[in-house]
Amino acid sequence: MPVTLRELAERFGCELHGDGEIAVSRVGTLSGAGPDAVSFLANPAFRRQLGATRAAAVILEERYRGECPVASLVTPKPYVTYARVAALLAPPRTVEPGVHPSAVVGAGSVLGPGAAVGPQAAIGAGCRIGAGVVVGAGCVIGDGVEIGAESRLAPRVTVLEGARIGERCILHPGVVIGADGFGFAHDGGQWVKIPQTGGVVIGNDVEIGANTTIDRGAIEDTVIEDGVKIDNLVQIAHNVRIGAHTVMAGMSGVAGSTRIGRRCMIAGGAVVSNALDICDDVVITIRSIVTRSIDAPGTYSGALPAEVAPEWRRNAVRFKHLDALAERLRAVERALARRAGEQEQDDEQ
Amino acid sequence: MPVTLRELAERFGCELHGDGEIAVSRVGTLSGAGPDAVSFLANPAFRRQLGATRAAAVILEERYRGECPVASLVTPKPYVTYARVAALLAPPRTVEPGVHPSAVVGAGSVLGPGAAVGPQAAIGAGCRIGAGVVVGAGCVIGDGVEIGAESRLAPRVTVLEGARIGERCILHPGVVIGADGFGFAHDGGQWVKIPQTGGVVIGNDVEIGANTTIDRGAIEDTVIEDGVKIDNLVQIAHNVRIGAHTVMAGMSGVAGSTRIGRRCMIAGGAVVSNALDICDDVVITIRSIVTRSIDAPGTYSGALPAEVAPEWRRNAVRFKHLDALAERLRAVERALARRAGEQEQDDEQ
Amino acid sequence: MPVTLRELAERFGCELHGDGEIAVSRVGTLSGAGPDAVSFLANPAFRRQLGATRAAAVILEERYRGECPVASLVTPKPYVTYARVAALLAPPRTVEPGVHPSAVVGAGSVLGPGAAVGPQAAIGAGCRIGAGVVVGAGCVIGDGVEIGAESRLAPRVTVLEGARIGERCILHPGVVIGADGFGFAHDGGQWVKIPQTGGVVIGNDVEIGANTTIDRGAIEDTVIEDGVKIDNLVQIAHNVRIGAHTVMAGMSGVAGSTRIGRRCMIAGGAVVSNALDICDDVVITIRSIVTRSIDAPGTYSGALPAEVAPEWRRNAVRFKHLDALAERLRAVERALARRAGEQEQDDEQ
Fold first, then answer.
1. Are A257 and B43 in contact (CB under 8 A)?
2. Distance (Å, whole) CA C246 – CA C226
3. In angstroms, what separates the C-alpha of B294 from chain A's closest C-alpha?
4. pLDDT for res A345
5. Which residue intervals of chain C are DSSP H helices?
6. Which of A75, A168, A231, C6 has an alpha carbon within 20 to 30 A of A244's alpha carbon?
7. Are C115 and C133 a contacting pair, CB within 8 Å?
8. What is the mean pLDDT of chain A?
9. Chain C adjacent subunits, 3+ CB pairs under 8 A
C-alpha cells in the first residue's frame, strides 16, 4: 500500500521538500533504498551515504537537507519519524481471528473479540485472553493466565499458571514467563526446594526477546513495568522488579530480588547481582557486572576490552601481582621520603 | 487447605510459642504476610521487619523469638523448615493422569501408573515413562528416552533420543536435553562434523531451569549426578560431568569434557573452560572464568565490579599498560638500589 | 552395520596395519572402546592411554604407530578421519518421509521428495521445503520460508516468516530464526518500536545449536554464510553478517550490524559489540569482549582468570586505584630524575 510523501509529511508533521505526489511503499537504507522506498539519516556516521542515495525521499534534520539529492521529509526527530513511517508501511501481519482447529483451549477460558490462537497452541483453563490478542503456533499458556488486549505472542512462547501480561505486549519465540525461581535451602549437604508461589506481572507495551526467561516470584510477584523492552536470551530472576521504560539488551541478566529503576539502559551481557537497588536513569555499559546498589543516575562500566593476545597476557599476568606491585611502589615511596629526609638533614648540617 | 500451627510444629519438629489452634493456609514475607499466612526469618537482613509483621506466626531461631510479636515456630533451621512448610501448603498442582487426546505417543512406549501427558506433546517410540511422571504440554520426547518416577517436565521441554532422566526431577520450559555436542574437525578451511554418539544421564532429584541446554556426549555420556540444581539459560557441553548436589546459577556454563565436583556452587554467569577437573566443594563467584583445574576446595573469584564510567575508563586505560608500568617500577627500584649502593660507597669513603 | 578395517582404510585413504578382516560397528574412546569399536588418537594429551586400549583398531598418525597395541589406521589427519568413520558407523537416523497426521501444513507450501514433517509441527503458507528435509516434532515454520535440500530441523525449532535456510543445515531444538531485532527509537522517555522488515539468510552446511537466536534484519538481511557452525545459547543480532566457515562457541554473541569475517573462531562467552568489522581469520578467546573493529588476523584476548578469592580481592581492590597508582609511579620517577639532576649538579660543582 503505497503512500505519498505528502501524506507522510502531514501525518507525521514533517516539512516536505520535493514532489509530494511521489509514492513510497517501503523503507530502505540510504545505500540500499530504491525509488519506491523512503530512507532516513539519524546516525551521522551514515551522512556520507546521503549524497549518493537513490531513495525516493530521506527523513532527516534540517541541517542535512542541503546535502540531500532527492526529496526530503524534515523533522527534528528523524529516527522516531522513520519508526512511525516504517510501522505505517509494514504493519504487523493481520492474523485471522479464531482458534485453529488443532489448538486446545481449556475450560472456562475466554477469548476477546478478534483474538487468534494458532495451530498446535495449548491454552489452559480459566484464562482471560483480551481483544485482538494473537497466540502464536505452538504456544503454551497455563491455567488462569491473563493477557491484555492487542498483545502478540509469537510462536512457541510459554506463559505459566497465573501470569498476567498487559496490553500491546510483544513476546518473541521461546520466551518463558513464570518458571520457578531458583530457590533452595541447604540441609545437610542436600538442597531442599523452596516452593515458588509468587507470580509474574508484566505491564503494558512490554517487548520480550526470543528465549528470554522471566521467573515467577518466590512469595510475591516478579514485576516488569510498562514500556520495558527486553532483548533475546535475557534472564530475569524471581522477585525482580524492572522499572518502566527500562531497556535490557541481549544476554543481560538480573539476579533475584533486585530492583531496577525506570528508564535504565542495561547493555548486552551486563549482569546485576541479587538483592540490589538500582535507581532510575542508570546506564550499565556492555558486559559490566554490578555488585552494589546504585543510588546516583549515570553511566557505570566494568568491562576490559580484548587486546592482541600476547599484549593481553603480559598485562593479565601483571594483574595477578597488582597488590604486590602496589606494595613495592609504597616501599619505593618510603625509601625516597627517607632519603629526602636524610638529604634535608645533610643539608641542614 | 489450612493447617494449624500445632500440626506444623509437630510435623516439622519446631517448638511452638503461641496459640496452636491458629490455622494458616499460605506462606508470606514478613512485611507482606497477613493473618492467614506463616512467615519466616532466615536472613538477618530482614530482622528489622520482624517487629511489625502481621503474619499468623513466624518460623525463626530461638535467639530472635523475643522480638516476635506473634506466634512463633522455633527451629535451628528456619529456611529449611520454611521450605517444607511452603511445600505442604502449596503442593505441586495435581495433574490428571492419562494422555491428552491431542498428544502423540510412539509405538512401544510405556507409561507408568498415574503418568500424565499434556496436550500437543509428542513422545517417540520405545520410551519408558515412570509412575506419576508429568510430561507437560508441547513437550517433545525422542525415541528410547527413560524418565524416572515422579519427575515433572514443564511445558515445551525437549528430551532427545536415548536420554535417561532419574526420579523426582523437575525440568522447566524450554530445556533441551541431548542436542548434539559442538564438535568439528578442521579440514582445509572447512569443518567436518563429529557425530555425537554419546548420551545424557541425569540422576535423581535434579532440577533444570528454563531454556537451559545439556548436550549429549561425543562418544560417552554427559552426566548430571543426583541432587544437582541448575538455573535458567545454563549451557552444559558434551562429556561434562556435574557432581552430586552441585548448584549452578543462571547463565553459567561448563565447556566440553570438564568435570565439576560434588557440592560445588557456581554463581550466575560464571564459566568453566573445557577439559578441566574441578574438585568437590568449590565455590565460583559471580561471572568468574575458570581456565585451570582446581584441586583445593574453596572460593574462587574473577570479576571486576562496575564503577562510575569515567573512573572505570581511567583505570581500564592503565590496565593496557600494566606490564609497562611494572617495568617502570622495576627500573625505579633498580635506580634506588644503585643510588643506595653509591651512597653506601660514599659513606664508606 | 559392521565395517571391516580394510574397507575403512580404502574408503578413507588410510594405511592399514593389522588384520583387515576385523569388523567394527562403533567408535569409542581409547579408554572406553571395546573390541567392536575403532578409536583414535588426535589430541596428544591422550597418548598415554594408547598402550592400554582394548579397541579393535586406532586411527592415528604414523609417529604414534609404534605405541599402538592393536591394529591401526594411519593417516596424517586422524581427527578428520575419525569424524568420517564415525559418520559412516552412526549415520543420522533415517526418518520416514511424509507429513505426520498431527502436523499442520499451510496453503501453497511445497515439500520436496523424501521430506518429513514430525508430529505437532506447524508449517505456514507458501513455504518451499527441499528434498529430504526433516522438520522435527513441534517445529513452527512461518509463511514463505525456504529450506534447502537435506537440511534437518530438530524438534521445537522456530523459523519465522520469509527466512531462507540453505542445504544440509542442522538446527538444534529451541533455535529461533527471524525474531525481530532489538530496535527502538527514543521519544520523550518512551521507546518507539522500529519495525524489523529485513530477513534472515542462512547458507549451506550451517549448524546452529540449541536455544540459539538469530534475529531478522531491521531493513536488510541478517546473513550467516556457508559452513558456519554456531553452538548453544548464542545471540546473533539484527543485520549481522557471519563469514563463511566461522565457528562460534556456546554463549557467545554478536551485537547489531557487526560483520564477522570468514574462518574466525569465537570462543565460549565472547561478545562482539555493535557496528564493528572483524576481518577474516580472527580468533577471539574465551569470554573476551571486542569493542573495536579488527583489521589484522590473529588472536585477541580479554578475560582475567579466576583466582583464590582473597588473592583476587586484593588485586581487584588495587585495580580501582590503578590510575592513582600510575600517577604515584610517575611522581616517583620525577623525584628520582630531579634528584639525579641535583646529584649531577652536585658532582659538577
1. no
2. 9
3. 17
4. 72
5. 5-12, 78-89, 309-319, 322-348
6. A75
7. yes
8. 96
9. A, B
Q: Are B220 and C32 in contact (CB < 8 Å)?
A: yes
Question: Residue A322 — left, alpha, or beta (φ > 0 → left; ψ -120 to 50 → alpha)?
Answer: alpha
For residues B68 and B52, what is the distance between their CA atoms, to the nearest angstrom? 9
Give the ipTM. Answer: 0.96
Residue contact B104–C87, C-beta within 8 A: no
For testing the chain C interface, which of B135, B213, B283, B333 should be mutated: the one with the most C CBs within 10 Å? B213
Query: Is C85 within 8 Å of C99 (Cβ atoms)?
Result: no
Contact flag B312-A328 (C-beta cutoff 8 Å): no
Would you state the cell numbers that stand for residue B201, as one nine-digit string? Answer: 544421564
The dihedral of CA C64, C66, C71, C72: what is its sign? Answer: positive
Per residue, the 3-state secondary structure of B188-200, as one string, reads CCEEEECCCCCCE
Predicted pLDDT at B92: 83
Cα separation values, B325 from B339, C34, C301, C323, C337, Å: 21, 57, 20, 11, 17
- Give the residue on C whose Cα is nearest the Cα of B336: C336
Partner residue facing B306 (CB), from A176, A284, A332 = A284
Q: Whole-angstrom Cα distance, residue B182 to residue C248?
A: 10
Is the Cβ pair B211, A176 closer than 8 Å?
yes
Residue A53 has pLDDT above 70, yes or no: yes
pLDDT grade for C93, boundaries at 50, 70 and 90: confident
C-alpha dist (Å) from residue A234 to A181, A343, C125: 14, 63, 31
CB interface of B with C, residues 197-256, below 8 Å: 197, 211, 213, 215, 219-220, 233, 235, 237, 251, 253, 255
**Per-residue pLDDT for A348 more than 70?**
no
> Which chains neighbour B (Cβ–Cβ under 8 Å, 3 or more pairs)?
A, C
- Predicted confidence (pLDDT) per residue in C117-149, tens digit: 999 999 999 999 999 999 999 999 999 999 999
Supply the pLDDT for residue C340.
80
Determine whether the interchain pair C290/A304 forms a contact, defined as Cβ–Cβ distance below 8 Å: no
User: Is residue C159 over pLDDT 90?
Assistant: yes
Does residue A285 sit at the C interface (CB-CB below 8 Å)? no
Residue pLDDT, tens place only, C77-86: 999 999 999 9
A166-184: per-residue pLDDT in tens? 999 999 999 999 999 999 9
Round to whole Å and give the CA distance between C30 and C46. Answer: 8
- What was the pLDDT predicted at B189? 86
Closest Cα in chain C, distance from residue A286 (Å)? 8
Phi, psi angle pair for C312, to nearest 5°:
-55, -45
With CA atoms as reference, the chain A residue closest to C308 would be: A320
C90 lies within 8 A of chain A by CB? no
C 155-174: CB under 8 A from B: 155-156, 170, 172-174
State the pTM of this model: 0.97
All residues of chain B having their beta carbon less than 8 Å from the beta carbon of residue A210 are none
- Kindly state whether B292 is in contact with chain C, defined as any CB-CB distance less than 8 angstroms: yes
User: Is the CB of C32 less than 8 angstroms away from the CB of B219?
Assistant: yes
DSSP string, C228-290: -EE-TT-EE-TT-EE-TT-EE-TT-EE-TT-EE-TT-EE-TT-EE-TT-EE-SSEEE-TT-EE
Q: Would you state the cell numbers that stand for residue B96, as one nine-digit string? A: 490428571
